Amino acid sequence: MVTRRTKALVQLGLSLLASLWMLLLRKIRQDSEDEQHAPARLSLVGLVAGGVRGVGHLWANDRDFWQIRTSRRRRFLASLVTTTVDVRLSSRSESFNDSFALGHLLGATVYRAWFGLLRPLPEADG
After folding, report:
1. Domain edges within the chain
2. Mean pLDDT computed over every residue of the chain
3. Spatial separation of the C-alpha atoms in residues 60 and 20, rounded to whole Å
4. What is the 3-state secondary structure (H, E, C) of the chain?
5. 48-57 b/e with 16+ CB inside 10 Å = b?
6. What is the crossing angle of helices 44-62 and 72-89, to 10°?
7. Strand pairing partners for 115?
8. Comparing C-alpha atoms, which of 25, 4, 37 is closest to residue 101?
């Protein structure tokens, strides 16, 4: 069985790689001569919203909030809610969507670096 800490470290690695990949693609698109494919400007609101989403998801999972880690039914319901919110938010501008995705990855990376690499994972609350 894989430990929670090992899963957390894998999450950290994947979110870090995905963040770097997204930033690299933005840089490549920015350096492109083609103005039509230039990346959208980053939105501070999108970055913050994505960061809150990334941190919130991992925080709830680490603490087994509403038993989303241990109950399949509750995990499914929580996934439906977050997917619905994500779909609603995706109808915004390209700038917001790109910023939200990057913020989500950066938030998850920072959270996992703090809880999982530098500090132990929090235990489930009561």
Report:
1. 4-114
2. 93
3. 25
4. CCCHHHHHHHHHHHHHHHHHHHHHHHHHHHHCCCHHHCCCCCCHHHHHHHHHHHHHHHHHHHCCHHHCCCCHHHHHHHHHHHHHHHHHHCCCCHHHHHHHHHHHHHHHHHHHHHECCCECCCCCCC
5. ebbbebbbeb
6. 180
7. 119
8. 25
Do residues 27 and 34 lie in contact, with contact meaning Cβ atoms separated by under 8 Å?
no
| pTM for the whole structure | 0.90
- Amino acid making up residue 11: Q
53: tokens are 């989403």
Name residue 114's amino acid: W
Q: Alpha-carbon distance 25 to 75, whole Å? A: 32
- What pLDDT digit, counting tens, does each position of 89-109 carry? 888 899 999 999 999 999 999
State both tokens at 18: 């995905």
Q: Apex CA 49: angle with CA 108 and CA 16, to 5°?
A: 25
Find out whether 108 and 18 touch, Cβ atoms under 8 Å: no
